[in-house]
Amino acid sequence: MAFDLVVNGSVQRIEADPQTPLLWVIRDHVGLTGTKFSCGIGQCGACTVHVGGRAVRSCSIPAATAIGKPVVTIEGVSPDGTHPVQLAWKEFDTPQCGYCQSGMIMSALALLRERPHPTDADIDARVTNACRCGTYYRIRKAIHLAADLMGK
Amino acid sequence: MNTDVTRREFLATVAAAQGAFVLGFWMPEKAHAQTQTLASTPPGAAWYEEPATPEVNAWIVVAPDDTVTIRIAQTELGQGVWTSNAMMVCEELQCDWTKVRPQYASANRDAREKAPAWTLAVPGNGATDARGGGVPTFGTRDRTGVAGIPDSLYRRMRTNAASSVKDGRYYLQLAGAEARERLLLAAAELWNVPVAELTAKNSIITHARSGRTVTYGHVAQRAAQTPHPHPETITIKPPDQWTLMGTEQKNLDVPLKVTGQTVYGIDVRVPGMKWAAVKACPVYGGDVKRFDFEAVRHMPGVRSAVPFPIPDPALTRGRIFSGGVAVIADSWYQAKTAIDRMPIEWTIPPEHAAVNTAMMRDALLTAIDQPGQVRVNQGDVDAGFAHAAKIVEATYSTPYLARARMEPGNATVLVTNDRVDIWIGDQSPQETRFSASKITGIPEQNVYVHLCHLGGGFGRNGNGPQAEHAIMIANAHRGTPIHMLWTREQDFIGTTYRAMGIARLKAGLDAEGWPIALDVRTCMQRDGFGPEASFDVTSRYHVPSYRYSSHTTRFHVPVGTRRGVGQAAHEFYRESFMDELARAAGKDPYLYRRELLARTNLPYKADMIKALDMAAEMSGWGTPLPRGTARAIALEERGAETDGLATISAMVHTVSVNRAGKVRLERVDVAHDTGFGLVNPLSVKKQIEGQIVWFYNDAMHQATTIADGHVVENNFDKFPLSRMGENPPEINIRFFPTGHWLMGMGHDRATSVQAAIGDAIYQITGKRFRDLPYGKHDLTWS
């Protein structure tokens, strides 16, 4: 079985069962490992990517659902870490272990696209990823800074 | 390879062939030489690589372009050691911080090489000496590496007990100083001038008399050849001379963590690699009885299946985990899909299968009423009770708790006939090296542990058995690299837990409400960590008569070093009881604590009072709050019972509870001591912020329960993690200097959240809960 996915702007021929979760297609067939596996049940958000511009938990959707829609992973945010969200994340030295941060950044980016100046309540409602190190305090500050940087 | 075994033979032979018998069509496509496997190191990898230019010493390589590679012998799991360890070296090396590139030290070289003699003299008794080394602990001569190996090259490669800075500081400053002196000697030789006329700063050596300069990179090759510098030249700087240490430095691992490039263990890819999914018996001590590989062998990508036994307890510090089975496939999802469909039967010890949380709690309650081990008996506690105007008694309890780091257990292992390569995020590579040698029979000198950053640790990644599982599976597939990855559910099986605990506290108060007698009993499973923490030696708060006894019982659930160990639970007991005593006395809990500390003769009582005063003042203690909001204060100390190392803080937590019972931590005010100096205050702040979240989860949400002998909460739907919406919007942290070295920052800060939320709930709702987590109780009020 083979199908095409458009990941970070390039067409990828995938030789796999299209029912394979998108996460594993991204990690093992496309070969992009920035998107992480943690719970496997769509709870924690470590696997968050954008499909058709929306943040989704890629561990819990079949790759087939992304056919024909652009998929963006952390590797597609910027080639060199200079996207305003990444700059804001670095400004506050946000990550600790870092394992959840790809997903956090993808969730924050989806929020900022929809609400360029999110309130704290918007952040609470839309960035529902889990961070075991407890970096939430800095994530909130980084999202507000990213909003300012993106607005300039 | 067993390609022609009939199905009946599979079923008959599995039990007898545990761990040595692979089922399935297993033919490695080709043998992959390790040199080929090692050739492709991705840019985000952190593991050791052989230097392209000669090293100045075992910690430092300076390239011709002045890039400085600093080798880190502890592992980065989010606590900032990658940066703080490098800062300690750089401070003395006087190199350009912007050119520093950390890299993991080689656990293989650690097996082959001895520590240089100049690193072995460590000044003790440094706790009250700003120039001293603190008291580094390099453990006993235990070849397993559990506590470090005193004479191996890097001695202690373990990352635990919040002690990377405490134990590494003297050693790493010395390494930087030694390398600096070698570089100076090399320049002196180059210019034929006395070394005393040279100075070093920012990777440049200057000869002021002749106006000449040379970069470190230019003389590094020569420096590698110089004799060891005169010992008097390699002294280390006390804190008042630090220039880099003590400043806030952004963490060097962060840039790659915002681009997804960091290579964690799960991200390791080596040529020819196959994937393993695992099922271990859910009940500890259980093993595989039989499994039916025939049912899944024709599924896509499936290659083989192999059972493995309960890991040898000698490799897991005596803990009994479970036996299990692995399915090997071309991709992990194929392996996982197959093992989910493969019928497996377990052999479960019936005495384990009969265990549940309620009976464990009963066993703790029975044990705590036994005489136990009396650890402290000062004054006459019973006479105190007889004369008391008022008696206050309380029983508190804390559940089993998982660490639940975000990255599920994994390791990639290649075993050939004379060498083992392991790619893993690991808090204890010396132990993993030992395990690999014991399992494969290949000497430790031929074991290569390629360290990766960890997706969280919290004490987890040095307790087994993720490495042991992977090594056993790969040992059965020699010549092929196997990447074993646990599911989240397996990660909750393959872990140790913080022990469940119970405490009974009883105080006699005088007519003024001050305690005159205190009896404390704690009970925790045998082998639990920190079973006497926070109560041993002294009561901390003054009481004329004090008795402390510790009690234990035995359970089959393996327990280990979860963040905060027993101390986190014990500080919950102690600080909760102080609140209850203050309320019983009709006194302010802050001033009550303050007075009882002032009455002690503890060496650091002034620091503890300072912490309380500062936190109270920062929080606006005593100023009005809206109905439904309350403040609570608590002390946190580690080591305050003696005049050695200590870490001291106090926090005020402002907590709201709405009428529906929803709790929100609104604000945290933190007063924290720096000791003689913090290496990277930015990392310390991040550790405090993170531990507020950690202990908030302990207080409000998390509990591991046991049913039919197995762990019930095995994913994040049942073992919840708090999110943005529950995080305190305001955290204020202030530091104050103290005259001792710190004990550490990584694991017992913010334990105060637990007692403070309890007292705030009491203030708002009138209900006192003593059994964590609070989230399971009815917190509504009207």
User: DSSP helix count of chain B?
Assistant: 19
Classification by helices and strands of chain B: alpha+beta
Rg of chain B, nearest Å: 28 Å
Secondary structure: number of strands of chain A:
5
How big a fraction of the residues of chain B is strand?
A: 15-25%
What is the fold's blueprint, element by element?
The complex is a heterodimer of chains A (152) and B (782).
Chain A (H helix, E strand, L loop, with lengths): L1 E6 L2 E6 L6 H9 L17 E4 L2 E4 L12 E3 L11 H8 L9 H14 L5 H7 L9 H16 L1
Parallel strand pairs in A: 1-5
Antiparallel strand pairs in A: 1-2, 3-4, 3-5
Helix pairs in contact in A: 2-5
Chain B lengths: L6 H7 L9 E2 L9 H5 L21 E3 L5 E5 L8 H13 L6 E5 L2 H6 L51 H28 L6 E4 L2 E4 L4 E4 H8 L30 H4 L16 E7 L6 E5 L10 E7 L15 E6 L2 H10 L2 E4 L2 H4 L3 H12 L4 E6 L2 H7 L2 E9 L11 E6 L4 E5 L4 H12 L6 E5 L14 H10 L6 E4 L2 H6 L7 E9 L5 E11 L19 E9 L11 H21 L3 H10 L6 H15 L9 E10 L8 E11 L5 E11 L7 H20 L5 E2 L2 E2 L18 E7 L15 H14 L17
Parallel strand pairs in B: 3-4, 8-18, 16-17, 20-21, 24-27
Antiparallel strand pairs in B: 1-10, 2-3, 5-6, 6-7, 8-11, 9-12, 10-11, 13-21, 14-19, 15-16, 15-18, 19-20, 22-23, 23-24, 25-26
